Each structure stands twice: as C-alpha cells, then as structure tokens.
Amino acid sequence: MPALVLCAHRDPAVAGRLHDALARVAGDALAFEPFTRFRTLDDRAAEAIAAGEDLALIFTGVELQETNGVELIRRLHDEPPLRAARKVLIAAADEVAEADSLLQLGALHGRLDPDFDDQALEVLLRNLLTDFVVQSAPHLIDELHSLLDLRSLAGAFSSARDNLRRLSERLDQVERSVIAVDKMSDDRIETEMVQEFDHLLDHPERRHYAAGEVMLHEGDEPGTIWILISGKVKLFRTVEGEDLTFHSESAGRIVGLMSLSLQSPIFFSCRAVTEVTALVLSREQIQDAIHRSPVLSNYLITVILRSMARRNRRAVQLLTQVRTLNRRLSEQRDELASTLEELRDTQERLIDSAKMATLGNLAAGMAHELNNPVAAILAAAGYLGRDLEALLATAPRLAVASAVIPEARELPPRSTREERQLRNALVADLGIESTAASRLVAAGVTNGPAFGRLAALDPSLGDAELISQIDRAGQIGSALRNITNCSTRIAALVRSLKAYARSDEAPAETTEINTTLDDVLLILANKLRDVRVAKHYGELPPVTANASQLQQVWTNLITNAVQAMNDRGDLELRTSVPRPGWVRVEVEDHGRGIPPEAAEHLFEARFTTRGGRVEFGLGLGLPISRSIVRRHGGEISFTSEPGRTVFAVDLPRHPPPSSDHPNDPSP
Amino acid sequence: MNRIAILSLEDEAEVRQAIARDLEPFAKLFRIEAAEDVGDARELIQSIDDEGDRTGLILCDHRLPGTTGVEFLTQLQAEPEHQGMRKVLVTGQADQQDTIRAINDGGLHRYIAKPWSADELQGVVREQLTEYLLEQDLDPMPFLSLLDDPRLLERIGRGARID
Q: Which one-letter DSSP state was computed for residue A267?
C-alpha cells in the first residue's frame, strides 16, 4: 500500500498541480488525496491512522474556509497520533510570519512555494520522507527508496544500531546483576549498594550514632531511610512502660522503609546497639537513584526482600515462642495451683502437728508436775486411814466410830435414788428422822440390824449420840475414800497425759499382736461380763512394736466399743494381713454408732469426763490411740452407722525409722 | 410438813458429798436433797411437791450426763410452778455463751465457780434462801438465827404476814 499524502487547499488548481508533480516525481509510491476543507482532511487523517495507513505527508494552504493553515498545523501537531506525519505549508516566502516559530517547535516540517517546480518538490520530498521513514516507518524503505536520501538514512540507522547495542548491553548488565545479586552475601550487596548511592548521589550524608542512642522513635513521621553501613541496631516498641525488642539479628540493614512505603508513622523505635554509621536518604534521593540505576534498584529490592524475609521469619519465631511460652505458662500455672493446694494441706497438717506438739509438751510438763503431789496425797490418805484406825482402836469410847470408818472407806458407790430408797426404808425401820437416816446411809448403815450391831458396841450411848458418832465417823470415812478416789483419778489422768505426750517411751520389741489382744481381754474381763466376744484371729507375722502401748490402744478401742453397747452385746475382734508387710486389727461393736458431727472431732483431744466416772483416758483415749498407732507408722480409721461401728488399725511389720521420733506427737 | 428443800444436782459422787457436807448447817431448818442426773432431779422435785414441801433452791452442776445444767435450768424456768425456785450454777466448765443463756433464759441467780470454799457456798445459799423467803412472802421468823439477814428483820418490822 502506498504511503498517503493529504492536502488541504482552497484552490483546486494548486492541488491539481501538486497531484501532477507528485505523480511525476514519485510515481505510484505515494497516494495523493486533496481536500478543499480542513474538516474533511481531519476526518480522513483520523480514519487513516485508525486503519493503520502510513500517513506520510500533509500539505496545507494558508487560507482555508474555516481556518488558516498555521492554525491547522498547530492543531494537527496537538494530535499525538498525527505527529509522525510530516507537515508542509504551501506558502510564498515571508507570506506567513509564524512559519519560523512553527518550524522551531517541530510542528511544521517544510514550506512549499505555490510556484514550485518538480525539483523543489523532489528536494522537499527527499528530506521529509527520509525523516518520516527513519523516525516512524522503517518498513517503507523499500517502497520509497527512490525518494529517500540514502546517506542520511544510513547515518540514522547506524546511530540507531549503536543505541540498540548500548541498550542491549545495559539490559545484559541488569540481567547479570539480578543473577549475581542472588548469590551475593549481604555485606557484598550492601557495599555495592552504598558505592552506587555514593556514585549516583555524590556521597550523601552519613550519620554516626553512639551505642545506646535511639535513632528513630516509634510514632515519628516517615520520610527518611537509614541504610546501615556499619554497626548493629535493634528494633523495639515501648509496651506498658517497658521496651520490648522485636528484632535485633533480624533488624536488617534498611530502617524506616516500611513506614515510608505505607506512609504511616514509624512502627518500631530503633536503637543503636553498637556504634552505628548510617546513610540517611530522603525518599526523593532514593527515587532519583533508582531511576538512574537499575542495578541499584535491584540491590535495594534484594536487601529489602532479605530484610523483610528475616523479619517475617522472626515474627513467626516470636509467634511460635509466644505459643510455647503460653503453653508452658499454663502448665506452670496448673502446677502452681496444685502445689499451692499441697502447701495448704501441709500447712494445715503442720499447724495441727504444732498444736499437738505444744499440747503434748504442756501435757507432759503438767503430768510430771502433778505426779509427785498426787502420789503424796494418795500415800497420805492411806496412812491417815491406817493411823486413824489404829488410834481409834485404843479409845473404847470411840468403838462405834472405829467400826464405822473402815466401812465408810470401802462403801460401794450408790446412786442418789438408791440412797433415798435406803433412807426411806431406814426411816420406816427405825422410826427416826429423815435427816438422821440420810446420815446413817451415808455412813454405810443401811438397815436396822446393822444399826443394832453398832448400838451394841457401846451401850452407854443414847440414840442421838450414837447417830452423831456414826455420822462423824461416816463423814471421815467417806472423806478418806473421796481423797483416795479423786487422787487415783488424777493419777489416771496423769498417766493418760504422759502416754499422750509419750514421755514414757519404751523400746520396740517383737510383738505377737494376737497375744496383746488376749492380754487386754483378760484385763478387761470384769468389764466384759455381759459381752460375748467373737475372736476371728488371722495368722499374723510378728510385728516390731511397743506391746504395752498397743495394749493401751486395744484397751481404749474395746472399752469404747463396749460402752457404745451399754456394756452388753456382741463384740467382734478380727486380725488379718491386709497386704504384705502389714497387719490389721478390727474392733466391731453393734452399738448406737458415732453421729457424723462427732466423727469429725473424734481424734481431737478433749478433757472431758463421762458421767462423772473415771473412764479410761478421760476423753483422750482416741487421740492417744492415734498418736500411738502413727508412731508405729500405722493408721487408725473407722466406719460407723447405727448398729455397726468398726475401728481398724493398720500397722506395718516394721515401723519406719522417721516415725520413731520421741518429740513428735503426730507424725 | 411444808419444809423448804435445797436440791443439789451433781453427777460426781465425791463432789456431791462435799456439797452435802457444806450444806449441813442448813439441815436443821431445810430439807437437803441430792440428785445425780436430771431424771433423778425431776423425780425429786416431784416427790418434794407431793410431800407438801417445796424446792426453794437448786444448786446445779453444768456438765451433766446427756445434758447441761443450763439446759435444765432453762426448762425449769419455762415452767410457771418452778419460776420461783432460786437457781445457782455450780461449775468450772460453763463457757461465756452458756452463762449468758443461763442468765437470760434460765433465770439464773448466782454462779459459783469450782473449786468453791465452804464459806462462799454457804454465803450464797444463805443469801438465796433469804431472797426466796422475801419473794415468796414467807414467815422469816424461824430462819432468823440461821440466815442472819437484816432484810428479814426489816420485813418482820414492817409487819409481814406471819403464818
């Protein structure tokens, strides 16, 4: 397809001449289309560009219907697709004043005198078409070669080839650097990069920071980038008044870039860890340098990527660490909670044991202090009685008293009901006053014949005198009896206290448990008068124990069991081997059972008496028993319901050495 | 007979006997009785009533088999016929709580701490019997020598009812 030449001129004659001349000069290498109106030329030009035709030349006259040629050329020049087309003004020299300025602007490419000849046209065509081909349409070289200036064509192409070669070399260089950078160490890249910056930006500012100095603060406005030349930094944030380091090894060599690219305030504060030298660059400087050096941008990208990759890996590490820490923390928390629980238990046990130790020491001290006076009182009461009786035996006037006192000393305990019944009977029998009868009963004179026998001892006494002497003597007798009873009771309490405080430690010996039980049954035979004892003894190995202490335990358990049944019923004793190396003793009664509220305090020491009678242990029985059993390394337990209570004592064959500590009442 | 009885309620025989001995000076003019538990005390009070006598004073231990003295005194106080009875707690073991309740609900008049002295116990008994005579508006004349209280003379001076 021939290259297109358009022409707008109001004079068809000019257009006709141009047509003919073109035909002569160019033959059919150019297609000529003349227009008298600018608008139709404009439409055709747009159509040609759209259709991909090669619009090579546009001729225009000076005077046109809607506009003039100068205006037309200016407008055509403003249309970028039409810029490639060479524009020629058909005008006489000096006809258009603006022509020169248009030429300088590059909007106009040539002028053709309306009185042109073929030669002038040919010269014009040769210049303009050569330009057109070189700049915009190299593919038309063959078609237009007869119309082109071959020398300038050759020059143009040779310089284009040079450009191309340079371009290609540069591309190669970039390509090589991309590959090389991948293999370059961080230090090497940084060195290269800093050199490149120095080269491009004429040694930009370097700043020095002392170790510990804060280079930038979290929250600062972005705008500057620090490229570290030497030294180390760490990135941190201040959280709840404390500096948390996020990156030290992973800080990278470029600081401030992320905030700059996000246009958000500085995210991490940056502190120099060692002395630091940094290149400080503004955003504009970096942009300028990158623009001028593709290698630099490659370096920069690589450094950034590596920095980001490190920070990213660090973030993942941190996250993983946080998870691990959280897990460990929650494990430790659970552990702490259970330790705390254990500590509380231990503390309670310790307090308990401290209380018991204090109580034990107090009891031991008291027991020792009370022991002597009680022993002295007991002895004194005995001597007093004996001496008094001996003395009275020498006084015939006191024969009655002499007979009454020993009786009154041995008087069996009677209930107040019994005493009243005896008194009333005596009132009826002897016809005496109720008060007098009371005194006789208290002195042990409970019937008429007994009174008669006493009266016979000293017939000189009248009834009133007799009763008075009996009363006095009875009082003396019962006072002696009471002194003996009460101090015996105190002595029993002292013994219990001493046992409780373990002041009378005896060495452990090889002990047959079944035998100790039988011994106790023998001792308690009187108490067990109305109790049927069923013995279910197992084959037991000998146990290393303090036999008398264990007997104290059995005595206490059996006495309790019998009391619970009101001294009558079935008592079961069982012994067995619950597991190797241990023996078990069970005492079972069928009494009222232990109320739950009492069960809780069963093993606590309480100084109580039962119904005013001296009972074993005086309420210390079970605490003492437990203390003894624990001292042997064993444990005492019970189950109880109305009608069935079982106390079980488990003992190891050999008590552990630690449980044999003399001053520790509750191991 | 119409005698006034002094009742001691004490479960330990030795203590009971010691109290009985301390009450001996009163035996000439008063009926002295002893009980070892609450059931026995109830029976006694009943039989004293039945025999036409009256229980004017009760000396009561606090720790008793199966119950407490305060509990028993509180029961007695709730019974109109026993409200006039003078009530004395003889104990070493009542705690503050028990004592407060004895005073507020048991109509307790006196508290004797164990161990006591004969003088102390006799003083309290004399004082309480005097109160009983005055409150019940009884003829103080027969008791003057024993109780030896100016308030009884005063009463006689004011012309108290004399049986």
A: -
